[in-house]
């Protein structure tokens, strides 16, 4: 890590900063806090679950619509960092508000969550696009992987502190209610996100851009229309995005359905939290390893390795019948989940025209966001038809096979051929 430049470190540390949000607010603590708030207000469990699903879907739809539009505007000089600051600040501020809003105001909590989700996802569009500005093509694999690795490690620290506070309060070791301890956990996450965003704000600047035009908003819509209209000109790039849509759907589904799968095997919630924590720790060094091997054998090769590992995971899941099997499955996931995502990000960064990186990372965000639709439905349908959750997970093999076949069809000469002459700030 010490050999990274200041811009590379600043960029990578944003993964360290915001990954706690995913673990604490999206996955572990806030969903339970919201459910308790809704129950306290007399909302049925099924109804509050539905509202939670609607909120997540609305936030996803909103950022998917905005990402390519704002991304295209952000390609003009000076806009990329401005938009990053706006969205990250929005996410941090409203995450802090989640800890301040009275716990019985479940609807207000849900509104704040939608805004935090919008801020988190929106900032990530510009953050990912900054990869082309902070490093060279030769170092993208390593830097992208370091970011994911730092994210895995960084997310566990506030998570452990938060879980510790909640458990101590539940055992009456510290004089706090579960509600207050959950609010403290959410506040810690917001502060962690804000503090470790500072290196990104201090050291990262937009180097590749388009020069200003009289009406950047109008010009951005015209550029977006032109890109979609001339999509055949970007065949390697969009062929990769199509492959990414399928295999990343499988990756996200394995992550999102893991706790449900573990519960069906009879694994306790405490054990599941321990498995989640260990998976984060193990994933960090393997993500760095993927980055090093990507530089040696190519990102495309390492993505294919990740896909093959996930195909094996899905096949192995079919035979799972014990907690030990689940632990082994989780460790297998840890070997590849960060690596396949890191290699996908750096591979895509090499494909896009650098001065249009925000526009294309907007599309990258759309494909990643909507790649959470087919997998859960596939798992649910297969599990319902066969009466076995194992069969549901096994069905994800289809997504990885389709993604792998499409990835193999991406031409070998794809990297760098999309890059066009660009303006570059040499100051």
UniProtKB/TrEMBL annotation:
What InterPro entries would the database entry show? Atg22-like, ATG22/LtaA_families, MFS_dom, MFS_trans_sf
Per the record, membrane topology reads:
Multi-pass membrane protein
Q: Which CDD domains match?
A: MFS_YxiO_like
Name the residues that span the membrane. 12-34, 54-76, 83-101, 107-127, 148-168, 180-201, 237-255, 267-290, 302-320, 326-348, 360-385, 391-410
Superkingdom of origin organism: Bacteria
Q: Could you cite one Gene Ontology molecular function of this protein?
A: transmembrane transporter activity
Major facilitator superfamily (MFS) profile domain sequence ranges: 236-427
Q: Could you name the Gene Ontology cellular component terms for this entry?
A: plasma membrane
Where is the protein localized?
Answer: Cell membrane
Q: Looking at the Swiss-Prot or TrEMBL record, what is one Pfam family this protein matches?
A: ATG22
Q: Which UniProt keywords apply?
A: Membrane, Transmembrane, Transmembrane helix, Transport
What is this protein called in UniProt? MFS transporter
Q: In which organism is this protein found?
A: Niallia endozanthoxylica
